Amino acid sequence: MNADPRPAGFGTTAASGGAIRLSLEVIPTPIGDMLLVADREGFLRAADFADCEDRLARLLDRRLGRGGYALTREAVPAAIAASLRDYFAGALAALDAIAVRSGGTPFQQTVWQALRTIPPGSPLNYGRLAERLGRPQSARAVGHANGANPWCVIIPCHRLVGADGGLTGYSGGTARKRWLLDHEARHTASA
């Protein structure tokens, strides 16, 4: 058994005394266990499905530096986990209550903020989001920023679709993306 409390793939180098201390909680969802990573100030630093653990580790390493964080298996702030559970129970606006913090370029942060403005049940294509940002020629850049989103579901990258409305890349897989879009459409229609 591994004595390191971090799951395999997470920052295996020893953290220095100045490392950011992070909590890791695994919560069940209807589409697979999710990993939630939060800091001591109550901000969600990252979230992804458990089978995407390696991606989450790479994003944390990129944003905080290898060895720049110490990850401990313990509960994240109760409000974060409760908001995510509420979302999966049909209270779609519950995601808005989750405060996030991460690095990222100014453009990535702009895209991530814009993703939160896409209403549930109303998917948008990459080109339209680029237009909303005043950068109509930047659909591909929007796609790259979307792919670097460290908060799966919470920052709703699943709400972006291809120009023809087709499902395009999603780190959790297209079956999950379809489930999330159907879930939001169902609960938006019943509201």
TrEMBL record:
* PROSITE patterns linked: MGMT
Pfam families under this entry? DNA_binding_1 (PF01035)
Membrane in keyword set: no
**Alphabetically ordered keywords of this record:** DNA damage, DNA repair, Methyltransferase, Transferase
* Enzyme class label: transferase
Sorted alphabetically, the Gene Ontology BP terms of this entry are: methylation
One example of the protein's molecular function in GO is: methylated-DNA-[protein]-cysteine S-methyltransferase activity
CDD domains referenced in this protein's UniProt entry, alphabetically: ATase (cd06445)
* Record-annotated Methylated-DNA-[protein]-cysteine S-methyltransferase DNA binding domain positions: 106-185
What reaction does this catalyse? a 4-O-methyl-thymidine in DNA + L-cysteinyl-[protein] = a thymidine in DNA + S-methyl-L-cysteinyl-[protein]; a 6-O-methyl-2'-deoxyguanosine in DNA + L-cysteinyl-[protein] = S-methyl-L-cysteinyl-[protein] + a 2'-deoxyguanosine in DNA
Supply the EC number(s): 2.1.1.63
Q: Which PANTHER family would you find in this protein's record?
A: METHYLATED-DNA--PROTEIN-CYSTEINE METHYLTRANSFERASE
Q: What is this protein called?
A: Methylated-DNA-[protein]-cysteine S-methyltransferase
